[in-house]
Amino acid sequence: MAGIQGADGGFAQYMVAPEDTLAIIPDTVSFEQAAPLMCAGVTVWNTIKQMGLKKGGSIGIVGIGGLGLLAIQFAKAVGYQVVAVDNRDIGLRLASEMPFHLKPDAIVKFGDEEAAKQISDLTRDIGLYGAVVCTDDVEASDWALH
Predict the structure, then answer these.
(1) Which of 13, 43, 78, 87 is 20 to 30 A distant from 106 in Cα terms?
(2) 106-109 and 81-86: which strand pairing?
(3) Under CATH, which number does the domain 39-145 receive?
(4) 3-state DSSP assignment of residue 130
């Protein structure tokens, strides 16, 4: 359930909710796999969707933790060129270990002298259409704005 609109009872065993706030979880997806999609997943999905990017367009995902990993997967699944950006080794490693079909097209360390060149090369000097910032790191957010 995406949220309870004007109703109590979210911790009840049963409740009535508007149909548009519900989603059927396929049998192949466990509750543990589906749980993050209703908060973290919706957060990054709506951001990506509202960009209005066309298939094949390029997008940067800044901050590769839980939100960033979901954002990478969503962006790749809809056909975008994805640049994963982080300044932490763990974030860069997580991005590099994703399954091939969901792996970012480029993984860059923000602040690295080669970061801008990597993005320029990938996008044929066009640059990124936009960036989804999935971190509270002020330097990373500032980098994404430029």
Answers:
(1) 43
(2) parallel
(3) 3.40.50.720
(4) strand
